Amino acid sequence: MGVLVEQDTETGAFHVVLNDHPVVSTVHVDELVMVDLDEAGEPVSVEFAAPPSETERALLHERFPQFKDLPALRSLV
Predict the structure, then answer these.
(1) Helix (H/G/I), strand (E/B), else coil: 61
(2) Please, are residues 33 and 46 in contact by the beta-carbon 8 Å criterion?
(3) CB 20 within 8 A of CB 36
(4) Alpha-carbon distance 69 to 24, whole Å?
(5) CB under 8 Å, gap of 24 or more: what pairs does 9-12 form?
(6) Cα–Cα dist 52/60, whole Å
(7) How far is CA 53 from CA 6, 19, 59, in A?
(8) CA nearest to 35, candidates 6, 12, 58, 63
(9) pTM, full prediction
(10) In terms of C-beta density within 10 A (0-12 exposed, 13-18 middle, 19 or more buried), how is residue 53 classed?
(11) Cα dist from 30 to 4, 23, 38, 73, whole Å
(12) From CA 30, how far away is CA 21, in angstroms rounded?
């Protein structure tokens, strides 16, 4: 499965799906950014309640370095 980016045009929220693993927990990076994790603690998806700011991107990259080079996240503005 490739990376899937979904946008809710009414709210401006973004949902980036990385894989189809079952979600077992969700980590709140801040009040607007949530990361779903699989059983191994690896990211399954990330949700932004609004287009991510530079600060939110930095927080996400700090906590989950694997997102840093993900083209789908670099394109969210």
Answers:
(1) helix
(2) yes
(3) no
(4) 24
(5) 11/49, 11/50, 12/50, 12/51
(6) 10
(7) 18, 24, 10
(8) 63
(9) 0.81
(10) middle
(11) 22, 19, 19, 16
(12) 23
Question: Do residues 71 and 54 touch, judged by C-beta distance below 8 A?
Answer: no
SS3 of residue 70 by DSSP: coil
The full set of domain ranges for the chain reads: 4-68
pLDDT in tens, the chain (77 residues): 678 888 888 888 888 898 999 999 999 988 888 999 999 999 999 998 887 778 887 888 888 887 777 766 666 54
CA distances from 3 to 31, 68, 71 (A): 23, 14, 9
